[in-house]
Amino acid sequence: MTVRDATLHKRIRADISDRILSGAWPPGHRVPAEHELMAQYGCSRMTVNKALAPLAESGLIVRRRRAGSFVSRPRIHSAVLDIPDIAAEVTGRGETYGYELLSRAERRATAADCEALGLDEAARVLALRCLHRAGGVPFALEERLINLGAAPEAAEVDFARTAPGGWLLAHIPWTEAEHRISAANVTPAMARTLRIAPTAACLVLERRTWRGTDRITHVRLTFPGEAYDLVARFAPSAGEPG
After folding, report:
1. Strand partners, 224
2. Secondary element (H or E) of residue 176
3. Is residue 66 packed enough to be buried (19+ CB in 10 Å), middle (13-18) or exposed (0-12)?
């Protein structure tokens, strides 16, 4: 490979990555075929392959034999359920949805923030606390961190009017997510916010999302135990005893 080709494959990879991460190419979008990229950039098939291989390895694209390459659809690791947008969940139950921003702080990430987001070094983060209501009753307490290095536009959003989860889904493309589910008791202050007894059981859902290698957000949603059910339907694997 020539020096020019060695530089060109990085340019091709960066161009494709930029289109995906900006949202210009949404999930499922067909990436130009190899011969199209060869003609566009005036390069060899080897150079194109060298540009596409790292994009596939990072999960940004999926390469299908004979079909071509496509922008990956979001995938979830170790998830036992899909968590819908809270507003849609509440209204889907026939209840009136309500939302309130309790606090907002932009700061340099603390050690705890870095651990939650999975950051190797401190960055600017936006810390939000929000309350979601169903029929006027507290439904979920949201505690969210947004990595402003990955989503700088979030700093300009009025989250007093817009719930962060819905905004992120609509504006910030993501490629991977991780869910963690647990049961927990809450602090007295959280119990007052959720209008529950301090000893009441709560369901906690934590989620981290990535865009390529960038950490986008970490959210911790605390639901009063009686407000949310986890339901999974499944069948035994072949040969598994009943």
Report:
1. 202
2. strand 176-184
3. exposed
Q: Is residue 75 scored above 90 in pLDDT? A: no
| Range(s) of the domain holding residue 64 | 3-73
Tell me: the pLDDT tens digits for 164-222? 998 998 888 888 888 888 888 888 999 999 998 888 889 898 999 988 888 999 999 99
Does residue 130 sit in the same domain as residue 44? no
Domains identified in the chain, total number:
2
- State whether 118 and 188 are in the same domain: yes
DSSP string across 33-86 = PHHHHHHHHT--HHHHHHHHHHHHHTTSEEEETTTEEEEPPPEEES-SS----H
Query: H/E element holding 9?
Result: helix 3-21
181 and 107 share one domain: yes
Backbone angles phi, psi at 93, to 5 degrees: -85, 0
215 plus 160 within the same structural domain: yes
Average pLDDT, the chain: 84
Q: What is the pTM of this model?
A: 0.64
Query: In the numeric block, which tokens belong to residue 10?
Result: 């990085």
